[in-house]
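Consider the following input, taken from an annotated entry for Ankyrin-2 (Discina gigas).
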Amino acid sequence: MTTVEYTADWNDTFLGAASIGNHLRVAQLLKQGVYIETELEGGLRAVHLAARGGHANVMIVLLAHGAEVAAIDHTGATVLHLAASGGHWKLIQVLIVRGGVDIEACDRRGMTALHYAACRGHAGAVRELIRNGAVKEALDQDECTPLLCAVRKGRVEVVRELVKSGVNLNPKDEAGCTPLHIAVLNGMVDLVQILVDGGADKEARNDLGFKPRGMMRWQDQNMAALLR
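Applying the prediction step yields:
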């Protein structure tokens, strides 16, 4: 394993060029024989840096030279996780079509790339992952689906995209709460509207026996009307 550190001429180095999207410099250095799996401290390789920045052209060059797309960073995240985290849907296309990445690979918390895209609010990345067969009801180590993650974070457009895709609207977390319970608890009327319109179960009970309407922390006439 070869490791390097940041230097004053960082942008001219192999990893620096990958991180800023300079695919021509990356190709030049690979032609000169630079080691493609060179790492920074912490295990970051060129593929990780390109994925973080959403640099599809750099990734195409790296893939053409045999870069290891299954390489993980210190959190267990793959390059697909990093691309999804940044909402880089075009790069997601490249990784799936040209790189053959495992779309269901999990990080150390059991989260897939779809979890990452959903939690961070990237509807376009969510759409691309689902279009390519990502499991919509995948569970992380906390028994959360991408929909539960998105609702907890208040990601309206992601929730809309997931509902449109036909995802199960009534998964339960470790407390038995559905996405509708969580949206009501957090006072997110727009999410309640989307979930109810999509057919979420208004009568589902959590582990304490509460229905979604029982989770209201303050009286909201609009929300109350949606939950009748």
